[in-house]
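Hi F.,

I've been meaning to write this up properly since the lab meeting, where we talked about keeping a consistent format for the predictions we share between groups. The idea is simple: the sequence comes first, exactly as it goes in, then the structure tokens exactly as they come out, then a line or two of notes. No screenshots and no reformatting. I'm using this chain as the first example so we have something concrete to point to.
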Amino acid sequence: MIELTKADGLWTVTLNNPTKANALTGAMLTELAEIAEDATEARALILSGTGKVFSAGADLDEARAGLATSDVWERLSGAIAALPCLTVAALNGTLAGGANGMVLACDIRIAVPQAKFFYPVMKLGFLPQPSDPLRMAALIGPARTKMVLMAGQKITAEEAYTFGLVDRVVEPEVLMQVARELVADSLAADPQIAAGIARMCQ
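Output, unedited:
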């Protein structure tokens, strides 16, 4: 359900469980965290999904059984945020729930026009993972973060772009092409220079 390809320094990670809207199980999250922890050798990383939804968030049965409060979410987002290479989330569709964490941890986010963004954690009776509100507020401010987390608003791709939650909106047929174009300079650069620039931008 997690696909990983490596080519010339580019790691492409794809969520591939479209019949369940790429809902995340504990096993999938652990595999994603392990990939992110191993990706220190990557020169760029692209995170995407198959189908019309990037991810519906946690698998609901597993969420109720304890996954919603597992530390694996923070393990995953922390590993992505710590990578020295350029990371791009190429959102092929809607982003929901805890799946926001790994996306917020990426350096750049691009999305298709049909994507929606929501995080109904409060409605489900859970707190968000600790770093998620901080990263979201750093991008879009505390009021808009509360619109998502407390007012339960679904944000369109256009609104997400206006807010600064995503950096570019592109048509589905060119989504991965644009993602690869965004990482092209980093793939060609001296990795130490690229990592140095990343540190300077924090």
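Notes:
The longest strand covers residues 2-7.
The chain has one domain: 2-177.

If this format works for you, I'll send the rest the same way.

G.
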